[in-house]
Amino acid sequence: MKRYLLDTNICIYFLKGLYQLDRKIEQVGPANCFISEMTVAELKYGAENSKTPEVLRPIIAAFLPKFVVIPVYDALDVYAAEKARLRKQGLIIDDFDILIGATAVVNNMVMVSNNHKHLSRISNIDLQDWTTAEPG
C-alpha cells in the first residue's frame, strides 16, 4: 500500500473543504496519509499570521491529530544534497519545500501537492496533485 505525505497546501485545501480531498483521503485510507513537521510549522505560522488567529488556532489544533507527523531528521542529508544541487543549478526553492519533499523521498512516500513547479525539481520524488487528479 502506498503512503502519502500531504503538503501544506493540500492540508489548507482540506481544511477549506476544497477539491473533495476528504473523499480522496478516505479513498487511500487516512492511516496511509501523513504530514511533515514542516507542515505543522507552516500551518501554525499561517494561523498566527492571519487576521483571526484565535479562530484558526483551534481549527489547526483539531486537524493535526488526524495524521501522523513525520519528523524531518532522517531527511536532512537529502535536504542538504538537494539544496546544494538546486542552488548550483540556479533553481532555488523554499527550504521548507525542500525539507518536505526530502521527507517524502527518504520515507518512500508519494508527495501530494499542487506545487509541481518547485517540488518536481527534487530528485526521485513521486509527486501527485490531488487538486486536479484522483489518487494513484
Protein model, in words:
It is a single chain. It contains 7 helices and 5 strands; from the N terminus they run βααβααβααβαβ. With 136 residues, the chain is an alpha/beta fold. The protein has a single domain (4-128), classed as 3-Layer(aba) Sandwich (Rossmann fold), CATH 3.40.50.1010. It has a 5-stranded parallel beta sheet. The protein is globular. The termini are close together.
Strand-pairing-aware structural class? alpha/beta
Main pleated sheet: 5 strands, parallel
Question: What strand line-up does the widest sheet have?
Answer: 3-2-1-4-5
For the terminal residues, how far apart are their CA atoms? 11 Å
Strand content: 5-15%
CATH fold field value: Rossmann fold
**Helix run count:** 7
What's the helical proportion of residues?
A: 40-55%
Mean pLDDT: 97
Order of helices and strands: EHHEHHEHHEHE
CATH classification class: Alpha Beta
Using only C-alpha atoms, the radius of gyration works out to 15 Å
The backbone outline, from C-alpha atoms, is: globular
Count of the separate structural domains: 1
Please give the number of β-strands.
5
Oligomer: single chain
CATH H level: which superfamily?
Answer: 5'-nuclease
User: Which ranges are low-confidence, i.e. pLDDT below 50, for 5 or more consecutive residues?
Assistant: none
The CATH architecture name reads 3-Layer(aba) Sandwich
